Amino acid sequence: MNQSSLKPIDSYRWSKIRLLATDMDGTLTQEEMFNFKLFQTLTRLSTAGIEVLITTGRSAGWVQAIATYLPVVGAIAENGGLFYWNHHPQANLISQGNIDEHRQQLRRVFQILKTKFPQIQESSDNRFRLTDWTFEVKNLNVTELEQIDRVCQSEGYGFTYSTIQCHIKPKYQNKASGLRQVIAQYFPDLKPAEILTIGDSPNDESLFNQQEFPLSAGVANVLKYQDQLKYLPAYVTNKAEGEGFCELAELIISHRQ
Fold this sequence. Notes:
With 257 residues, the protein is of the alpha/beta class.
């Protein structure tokens, strides 16, 4: 297992950061909500010249609104499936061919899982999705999640999960692949040392691969999953969830100033 040592990043690096690529649920939210402190922090980051790009597993329908109304530069939806650049139309990051046929195949895999794990329930936002299929992670233990992963792989699909949902998806669809495409197109001048990736759960794991993203951070609640992750973030905040993100942002802003 290739895990980081979870030690703090050298302080001089904070002043170089120009882009925060951050998960949303459990990373920006506090007890499943956006709070006033988060909005203040996002605004302060923007004023300091630090862009924020959300990378979430949430659906296309949800994320289009998020990219429009939050003070962020854009948002990647469905774990690397789509990208919304502020008020501009979405860009598909994963080519899935005919949408209806793609959705039918995802449904087929879900029905196979349903016969083996009858307790799983389709997520309420699944109807607003294009590239993946989601069901609730509650009532599933680690062993069952590993079994679900194997079933999806045997059917030719990938699988990941977060604190909220489980995702059936194309095998190579993940946050890192989506982020790479967005950086190449919209931030071609950025150097690796100027990008910080942030997350809290297994569907953020690709963002913690230090061979791709040398600077990564987890909010404190990521430690709940440290035995289930192949890659761990280089740095972990003292505080959990949105409070941890704000802690990290304050550190970056203070060094930038």
